[in-house]
Specification:
Oligomer: single chain
CATH class of the domain at 34-123: Mainly Alpha
Number of helices: 5
Order of helices and strands: HHHHH
Low-confidence stretches: 8-15, 17-25
CATH architecture of the domain at 34-123: Up-down Bundle
Distance between the termini: 61 Å
Radius of gyration: 22 Å
CATH topology of the domain at 34-123: Substrate Binding Domain Of Dnak, Chain:A, Domain 2
Strand content: under 5%
Helix content: over 70%
Largest sheet: none
Structural class: mainly alpha
Shape: elongated
Length: about 130
């Protein structure tokens, strides 16, 4: 039985470790193997993004003057309508396909993350380093 030279073994281990690190950096949805697993991970990603948006919304709402609160409530209702319509438009081509739920959830997640970021910045004070 022949053994690989130590140098080749070390190079192989380094490449294997680099591949594992690269794989770990991928979103979990990219590592899922089945459509069901990808859909489940996309749902988890969306749930997390939605929870973050709700937390930001609650904080901003708390900090707003009472006279501005109805404006934010209306804006959020309209934004949800926009998000759902935009995702329906973007994913129209996959309707009826097994990938459609994944595409809808991915779209909603991306737009929800962007909205949370925008909403968080709307409450910034001039010079606040957290808002740069």
């Amino acid at each position: 039985m022949s053994h690989p030279p130590r140098r080749s073994l070390r190079l192989g281990l380094r490449l294997g470790c680099a591949a594992l690190v690269a794989l770990a950096a991928l979103p979990v949805a990219a590592r899922a193997q089945t459509q069901l697993e990808m859909n489940q991970q996309a749902q988890a990603d969306y749930t997390l993004a939605d929870a973050r948006l709700n937390a930001v919304y609650t904080r901003v709402m708390h900090d707003l003057a009472p006279s501005r609160r109805p404006l934010l409530i209306a804006a959020e209702r309209d934004w949800i309508t926009y998000r759902d319509a935009e995702c329906a438009y973007q994913t129209f081509g996959s309707i009826g396909g097994s990938i459609h739920p994944l595409e809808v959830l991915t779209c909603r997640t991306e737009l929800t993350r962007a909205r949370a970021h925008t909403l968080a910045r709307s409450d910034c004070r001039q010079g606040d380093p957290a808002c740069q």
